[in-house]
Amino acid sequence: MYDIRARKYIGNTDNFEDTIKPGNVKVYSLLAYRVIDITGHLRSSYKQGETIELDAVLKTTSGKPDKHIFRIELYRDGKNIQPYNKNIVAENGRAKIVIPLAYNQEKGNYSLLVRDINSGLDRVFNFRVI
């Protein structure tokens, strides 16, 4: 069980109590497994105009993952580049993330954040645009 908004693992349980104060909202995710990692591989550098492709795979403690949603965010030198932000469906915990870089993409250090919405687990993949 996960608290989605707090991005926190609560535990494997068949019983749970919580207090919701007036005006507050809580959202929970019930999974038959615990999410332990998001794996994938990027090259260390890309040229302007190239396309980044990442096969992101959700790793769990047991069993095959169900459908998840990955939040994708791209950062350059720590600043979010909002036009690249999106949510994508990860069928069976797998998703192909495709990010076409502009031909005039600023050179520098980039980070691609992949977040599993159900568990709140983040994985950051770093690369350079040269």
Detailed description of the structure:
Strands 5, 7, 8, 9, 11 and 12 form a 6-stranded mixed sheet that branches. The radius of gyration is 17 Å and the shape is elongated. It has strands at 2-3, 8-9, 28-29, 35-39, 45-46, 51-60, 68-76, 79-80, 86-90, 94-100, 108-116, 122-129. The protein contains no helices and 12 strands.
State the helix count: 0
The CATH class is identified as Mainly Beta
Rg, alpha carbons: 17 Å
Q: Would you count the extended β strands for me?
A: 12
- Give the percentage of residues in beta strands: over 45%
Q: Which residue ranges are poorly predicted, with pLDDT under 50 across at least 5 consecutive positions?
A: none
Choose one word for the global shape. elongated
What fold name goes in the CATH topology slot? Immunoglobulin-like
First CA to last CA: what distance?
Answer: 42 Å
Class by SSE composition = mainly beta
CATH superfamily: Macroglobulin (MG2) domain
* Largest sheet, strands/sense/barrel: 6 strands, mixed
Series of H and E elements: EEEEEEEEEEEE
CATH architecture annotation name:
Sandwich
Count of structural domains:
1
Instruction: Please bin the fraction of helical residues.
Output: under 10%
Multimerization status: single chain
Mean pLDDT: 95
